[in-house]
UniProtKB/TrEMBL annotation:
It comes from Kribbella italica. Residues 49-178 form the ATPase AAA-3 domain. Keywords: Hydrolase. The keyword Hydrolase applies. PANTHER family: METHANOL DEHYDROGENASE REGULATOR (PTHR42759:SF5), MOXR FAMILY PROTEIN (PTHR42759). InterPro entries: ATPase_AAA-3 (IPR011703), CbbQ/NirQ/NorQ/GpvN (IPR050764), ChlI/MoxR_AAA_lid (IPR041628), P-loop_NTPase (IPR027417). The keyword Protein transport does not apply. Pfam families: AAA_3, AAA_lid_2. Gene3D superfamilies: Magnesium chelatase subunit I, C-Terminal domain, P-loop containing nucleotide triphosphate hydrolases. This is MoxR-like ATPase. Its EC number is 3.6.3.-. Coiled coil: none annotated.
Amino acid sequence: MSTTATSSAMDFDELTEVAGRVRRAIETVIEGKPDVVETAVTVLLAEGHLLIEDVPGVGKTMLAKALARSIDCTVRRIQFTPDLLPSDITGVSVFNQEVRDFEFKPGAVFANIVVGDEINRASPKTQAALLESMEERQVTVDTTTYQLETPFMVIATQNPIEMEGTYPLPEAQRDRFMARVSMGYPEPAAELRMLDGHSATDPLNNLQPVTDSQQVLRLVKTVQSVHVSESVKEYAVALVGATRRSQELRLGASPRATLHLIRAARAAAALDSREFVLPDDLQELAVPVLAHRVLPAAEAHLGGRGASDIITGLVASVPLPRTRRD
C-alpha cells in the first residue's frame, strides 16, 4: 500500500472515530433521534449551516447547544426577538474617546459556532444580517470587511410559521442553510428515558467537548477529498433540475442547492468510511437538503402534499445513473 493510500485510510479512520464521539455526546442529551443527530454531524463536516424547525419544546435548542458543546471552540448564542438589531449580530463601530477614532466591537456572529434561537421571531431586516456571514464567512461594517473564524457554522432554530409572533424566513435566507431537520415528538420509551435523565439535572451541564476546532478542520479537509464521479454529479443536477420542472412546485431549488447536495453527500460518504459518493447518498439527503428551498404550488397544498412529500416523489422518478462509481 502506498504512503498516500495509508495516510488517506488513517484520515478516514480519524473521521469516523471522532464523528462517533460527537454523535454519542449529543445523544446523551437528545434521546431517540439518531437520524437527526447524523444529519447535524454531516452538515458540520460539510461546512454547512443547519436549520432546525419544529414546534416548541421538542429539543431544538438542546440539539443546537449539544452539538456546539461537543466541540472545544468558541460558541455564541443569539436569542432572536422582535427588537434585536442587525448590529447586535454583526457588530458596530464605536467612537473611542481615548484614541479619537472608531473601533470595531464584534457582534455575536464572531464565533466558530453560532446558535440562533428562534430565528424567525426577529424582523426580516435582522434576519438578513446573517446572509453575508453564512455565505462568505465575512462581515462588512462601515465599508470594512472582517473575516470570521474557521470552522464557522450557524445552527438556527425556528418555530413553524403558523406560530404566533413569527416572521417567515425569506427564500434567500433559507437557501443559505445546507439542510433542515425536524425533531418530531419522541417515542414513548425515549420520553420516559428523558424523564429519568432530565428531570433532576440538565444533561448539557455534564456534556464535555470530545474534539476541537483544529481537528474539525482536519476532518473537513478529509471530506473534501471524497471522490464524486461525473455520473453522480449528473444525477445531482438531474435531481435538483426536477424540482424546477415539477408542476407541484412554484419555486424549484437553486444551483446552490446542487452544490450543497454534493458537499453533504461527500460528508455522508466519509462518515460511512467511503472515499467516493454513491447515488444512495444523494437520495438519503435529498429531503433535508432540498425541501426547505422549494415552494409547493397551491394545488399541492390543497392535495395535502408538502415539500418533503414532493421531493420524495421526485427522487423516485429520476432515473439512477448507469454507473455507480467512475
